[in-house]
């Protein structure tokens, strides 16, 4: 799965995330899954994607896209505890549960994992309704897939940011009224020059 993920060079970010989520559902033998991103201070979860199985079963209309972490139930514990959380019998009484909206797919078992970038949690991925109990191997599979997906997203976003930065510099360099030249100090080789410098020097 990680190999296939890394080979999706032409895929959009959404396609990468949907693939990783649906593979996490498949490999953990779950029936449903979701993916949510956290804001910078880890106070708001934004639901980004539901697995195709969840969408097929869920009848909730106009479900909120954003959730305050402080107001979430059991599924927000992965953020609050900053570790994977497994609930193998969702029917048991639990003070952390806050129920499901009418029409929501019934939850029998649930597991979710946080994904970190440095010390900050950047997303939470969850699966549910495996026939058997969730085990440590399920946590490992889920974590590997989601961390692999996040590293790809980080790399892509860094490349886009670098490209945009280079384009901004190039535009500023060539449009400034001041004559400017870029050269290699060690070799004395000219790398680039703007029109104003060319007019000034006659080169």
Give your account of this protein's structure.
The structure is a single chain. This protein is an alpha+beta fold. The chain has helices at 2-6, 13-27, 52-57, 77-80, 136-175, 195-201, and strands spanning 32-38, 44-50, 66-68, 85-87, 110-117, 120-128, 181-183, 190-193. The strands form two sheets. A six-stranded antiparallel β-sheet has the order 3-2-1-6-5-4. A two-stranded antiparallel sheet has the order 7-8. Strand 1 and strand 2 form a beta hairpin. Helix 2 packs antiparallel against helix 5. The longest helix has 40 residues, at 136-175. It is elongated.
Name its key features.
203 residues; alpha+beta; two-stranded antiparallel ribbon; 8 strands
Main sheet: strands, sense, barrel: 6 strands, antiparallel
Q: Helical element count?
A: 6
Q: Secondary-structure element order, as H and E?
A: HHEEHEHEEEHEEH
Shape: elongated
Distance between the termini: 56 Å
Mean of the pLDDT scores? 88
Residues in helices, as a percent range: 25-40%
Radius of gyration: 24 Å
Coarse structural class: alpha+beta
Give unreliable regions as ranges: none
> In what range is the share of β-strand residues?
15-25%
Order of strands across the widest beta sheet? 3-2-1-6-5-4
**Strand element count:** 8
């Amino acid at each position: 799965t990680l190999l296939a993920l890394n080979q999706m060079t032409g895929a959009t970010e959404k396609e990468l995330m949907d693939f990783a989520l649906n593979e996490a559902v498949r490999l953990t033998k779950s029936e449903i899954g979701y993916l949510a991103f956290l804001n910078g201070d880890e106070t708001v979860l934004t639901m980004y994607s539901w697995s195709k199985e969840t969408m097929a079963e869920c009848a909730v209309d106009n479900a909120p896209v954003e959730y305050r972490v402080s107001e979430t139930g059991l599924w927000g514990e992965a953020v609050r505890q900053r570790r994977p959380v497994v609930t193998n019998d969702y029917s048991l009484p639990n003070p952390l549960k806050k129920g499901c909206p009418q029409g929501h797919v019934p939850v029998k078992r649930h597991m979710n994992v946080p994904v970190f970038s440095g010390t900050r949690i950047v997303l939470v991925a969850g699966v549910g309704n495996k026939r058997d109990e969730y085990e440590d191997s399920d946590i490992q599979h889920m974590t590997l897939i989601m961390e692999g997906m996040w590293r790809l997203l980080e790399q892509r976003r860094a490349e886009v940011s670098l490209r945009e930065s280079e384009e901004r510099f190039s535009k500023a360099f060539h449009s400034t009224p001041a004559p400017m030249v870029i050269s290699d100090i060690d070799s004395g080789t000219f790398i680039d020059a703007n029109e104003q410098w060319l007019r000034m020097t006659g080169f």
